[in-house]
């Protein structure tokens, strides 16, 4: 019994430390080997484990610990696992934060892109509206210019007709047809007045002449024994001519001639109205001729021109009024000056020569 106890103590002394203080090799693959390192070199380590002796290359070893107890090794393993777990949790948290940050950034980028797209669309819309407004304004200006050009052409048409129509041409046209000359030179207002006056006068002359002729016919038929109605009355015994004795009576003669005198007065009034209508037509016709000749706008420009014509050429004498502060024209000038409202009025006589077509 004593021997067995001594053997147990010997085993404990020699093998106990090996069981308590063991060497630990942690491989890169995560495998942990517990045992006793019996030899090693610069490239390998040889360890004795429960399963036998193994030779391991140092390239595959992550950590090599000598004399570590099982509890310490388990504690280290737990701490290492805890650290790995915390690292995993931190990595997961960082990954989540990064994912959230990326999501927020992507959302911000999407919103920014949407804002830029809307801004671009709004800018394109404004540009299109501005272009449409510009086109409308250009069209309106073009239309206004065309309308002004048309108005200028319409305004120049009478001037061209005035410049192309001479006073003699307006005179013979107005003499042939009243107001034709005024219309040809572009004076439509005077043409309308003259034409209207002639038409009204002509209508009045026709009506007064018709009434006058009817009154004259009635006067001729009154008391005429050879008239048809008077002859029928005589044959029926309802009418008889007055005798000389009756006509010699002043009272009878007065009452007998009174109807004839009234008819004569009425006839004279109708004749006077016919004369008035004729006079009105004549006045309009004379005014038509005077206006066609004397009021023809010949060379009516800014300067008043007196034109002396010949068979070969035309000399023009122009009178112009100048506004000048200098009282002298030249050393040989004898022109007279008039001052009005602080301005010097200088009459100038200038002769120009040009062909007359």
Number of strands: 9
Give the count of helical stretches: 8
Radius of gyration from the CA trace? 69 Å
Label the overall shape: rod-shaped
The structural class is alpha+beta
Q: What topology emerges from the helices and strands here?
A:
Layout: H1 2-20, E1 22-27, E2 32-40, E3 44-49, E4 52-57, E5 61-68, H2 70-164, H3 167-176, H4 180-184, H5 188-221, H6 228-235, H7 244-248, H8 250-294, E6 304-309, E7 314-324, E8 338-340, E9 343-354
Antiparallel strand pairs: 1-2, 1-5, 2-3, 3-4, 6-7, 7-9, 8-9
Write a concise keyword list for the protein shown above.
8 helices; disordered C terminus; 357 residues; SH3 type barrels; 4 domains; 5-stranded antiparallel β-sheet; 62% helix; alpha+beta; 4-stranded antiparallel β-sheet
Task: Please tell me about this protein's structure.
The chain is α+β, with helices and mostly antiparallel strands and 357 residues long. The chain contains 8 helices and 9 strands. It has helices spanning 2-20, 70-164, 167-176, 180-184, 188-221, 228-235, 244-248, 250-294, and strands at 22-27, 32-40, 44-49, 52-57, 61-68, 304-309, 314-324, 338-340, 343-354. The strands form 2 sheets. The protein has a 5-stranded antiparallel sheet with strand order 4-3-2-1-5. A 4-stranded antiparallel sheet has the order 6-7-9-8, with no helix packed on it.
């Amino acid at each position: 019994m004593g021997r067995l106890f001594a053997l147990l103590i010997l085993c404990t002394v020699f093998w106990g430390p090996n069981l308590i203080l063991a060497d630990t090799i942690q491989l890169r693959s995560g495998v942990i080997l517990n045992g006793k390192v019996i030899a090693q070199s610069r490239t390998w380590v040889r360890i004795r484990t429960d399963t036998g002796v193994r030779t391991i290359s140092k390239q595959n070893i992550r950590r090599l610990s000598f004399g570590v107890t099982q509890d310490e090794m388990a504690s280290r393993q737990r701490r290492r696992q805890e650290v790995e777990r915390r690292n995993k949790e931190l990595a997961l948290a960082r990954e989540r934060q990064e994912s959230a940050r990326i999501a927020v950034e992507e959302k911000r980028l999407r919103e920014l892109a949407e804002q830029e797209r809307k801004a671009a669309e709004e800018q394109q819309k404004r540009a299109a509206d501005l272009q449409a407004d510009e086109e409308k304004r250009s069209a309106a200006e073009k239309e206004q210019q065309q309308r002004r050009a048309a108005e200028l052409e319409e305004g120049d048409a009478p001037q061209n007709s005035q410049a192309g129509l001479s006073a003699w041409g307006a005179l013979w046209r107005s003499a042939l047809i009243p107001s034709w000359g005024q219309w040809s030179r572009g004076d439509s207002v005077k043409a309308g007045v003259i034409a209207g006056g002639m038409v009204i006068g002509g209508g009045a002359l026709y009506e007064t002449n018709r009434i006058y002729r009817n009154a004259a016919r009635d006067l001729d038929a009154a008391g005429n024994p050879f008239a048809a109605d008077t002859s029928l009355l005589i044959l029926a015994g309802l009418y008889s001519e007055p005798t000389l004795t009756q006509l010699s009576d002043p009272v009878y003669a007065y009452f007998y001639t009174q109807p004839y005198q009234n008819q004569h007065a009425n006839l004279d009034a109708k004749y006077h109205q016919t004369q008035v209508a004729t006079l009105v037509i004549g006045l309009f016709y004379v005014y038509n001729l005077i206006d066609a000749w004397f009021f023809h706008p010949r060379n009516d420009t800014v300067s008043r021109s007196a034109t002396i014509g010949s068979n070969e050429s035309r000399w023009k004498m122009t009178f112009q009024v100048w506004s000048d502060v200098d009282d002298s024209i030249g050393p040989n000038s004898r022109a007279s000056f008039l001052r009005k409202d602080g301005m010097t009025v200088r009459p100038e006589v200038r002769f120009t020569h040009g062909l007359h077509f």
